[in-house]
Amino acid sequence: MSIHFPLQADGALDALQPAPRFKSVAGSGNQPLANGTLVFNSPDVFSPLMLMKQSALENNLRQLAAFCREQGVMLAAHGKTSMSPAILRRAVAEGGAWGLSAATPAQVRALRQFGIRNVFLANELVDPAGIRWIGEWQKQHPEHSFLCYVDSLQGVRLLEQHLGDSRISVLLEMSVSGGRTGCRSSAEALEIAAAIAASPALQLVGVAGYEGALGAGRDAAGVQRVKDYCQMLITTAALLAEKQLFASQHIILSAGGGAWFDVVSACFTAANLPLPVTPLIRSGAYMAHDSGLYARIAPFAQPGARHHFTAALEIWGRVLSRPEPGLAFVDFGRRDVPFDQDLPNPLWVRDVDGSALRAASGMRISEVNDQHAYLLLPQEDRLKPGDWVGCGISHPCTAFDKWRYLPLVDDDYCVTDSLETAF
Fold this sequence. Notes:
Blueprint: E1 49-53, H1 54-71, E2 74-78, H2 85-93, E3 99-102, H3 105-113, E4 118-124, H4 128-140, E5 145-150, H5 153-162, E6 168-173, H6 186-197, E7 202-208, H7 220-242, E8 251-255, H8 261-269, E9 277-281, H9 293-297, E10 313-324, E11 327-330, E12 345-350, E13 358-359, E14 364-368, E15 373-376, E16 388-392, E17 405-409, E18 415-420
Parallel strand pairs: 1-17, 2-3, 2-9, 3-4, 4-5, 5-6, 6-7, 7-8, 8-9
Antiparallel strand pairs: 1-10, 10-11, 10-16, 11-15, 12-13, 12-16, 14-15, 17-18
Helix pairs in contact: 3-4, 4-5, 7-8
């Protein structure tokens, strides 16, 4: 027997061993799957498993790179989505990105360690330890580019106090009442921009914002709301240029997350300012795309779009139980999949040995617990415990952070590379 009676709480323990790093890899869990591994019939794969399709990743990098070239905009792809060096280095080396965006000083540090030379902290930099680390990095690596936001006089003071003898380039962030971070008025913008211009530690090089916080839909009113927001950024830049507060001979205009980079690009490239404009968009979700949120709202998902993204992430799990004819349970849950926007979308089913691929017709996940997904299915379907169920996900920004490692696979689900993450 594998249990000993009577049960006793005797406090005995074995020696502590290194914790496994990769939950989807069998054995010790400390080495990624070998290239060439066929994931569905390999003894080296634990279920559940999140993976990324190489063909989709490569397509998505090509598509946005082509869009940026056509529109005349630059890309600081947001690294927070995947925080994976193997993916993010491709965005620069293959995807035409100028650099990468980050949201925190810790992410800036990670991107530097990934070998990224141009980093845009698309946020305010107010943490003294983070300011000091970035200031020291810039001092030691003056050839590396760095940008961040400022939206307050206190933010200016904190940067001056903790940058040491480093000098960094900043963008004034603007927003609207009820929005996210950013100045709320032109008077406030002028006051802060003047403080930046007078600072020996800072150089004002542009104006930025985040249109996604507006909560606008893709109807005519929503599109106009985003256009008006972009125009507010342009108007602010014109005001600051008139007062000669920019330290550079170019003005960076930056916005454009995963949902609105098309509208943002059109507005910024049409801007007429006293100095040349460099539009800089910051989408990050595009590398993975999805089968839910971004499949609905991304610019390339809209009618008439010339480019297209492909969902690159899939979660595969095994059926744990089928206690009722129309209900099965799969072995992934909130610890494994995003659930903040939509639940996973069943796409495919395979037999226990990975064979007999078929569409997940009539199947739907209705709920997820920590480690269980409730799968509703036709009563006559032959799905059984041990079978594989593969799903698309919604919102890649809350998918990668649940995995230290994902295999990159070809269209036959053969491993081609290892994607580790650094959250």
